[in-house]
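Please decode residue identities from the backbone states below.
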């Protein structure tokens, strides 16, 4: 990975016409530069971990939201079906009561 970064830097330097003196590479043996690089790597790993964690949360709660939407739709259909059955039963009861009341009145 380090070799790829160095090659990319050299390619970029060649494309932009910079000489070897104008680009100064970091000395990996310097403890301060090493600490800076390690802290940057740790920060990147932490941020990537948080990003992956948030993507997992979003996917999980999206699935949970879809499940709850399906449950809500099924409950709506069940309640509306129950109300339709109750209305039909009330209509049948009213018709039967009207028939019995007209039969007893005659």
């Amino acid at each position: 990975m380090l070799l790829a970064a160095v090659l990319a830097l050299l390619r970029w330097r060649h494309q932009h016409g910079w000489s070897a003196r104008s680009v100064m590479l970091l000395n990996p043996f310097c403890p301060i530069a090493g600490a800076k690089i390690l802290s940057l790597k740790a920060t990147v790993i932490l941020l990537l971990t948080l990003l992956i964690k948030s993507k997992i949360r979003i996917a999980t709660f999206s699935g949970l939201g879809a499940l709850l939407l399906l449950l809500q739709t099924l409950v709506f259909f069940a309640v509306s079906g129950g109300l339709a059955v109750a209305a039909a039963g009330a209509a049948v009861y009213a018709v039967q009561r009207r028939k019995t009341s007209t039969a007893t009145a005659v």
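Observation: DSSP finds two helices and no strands in the chain.
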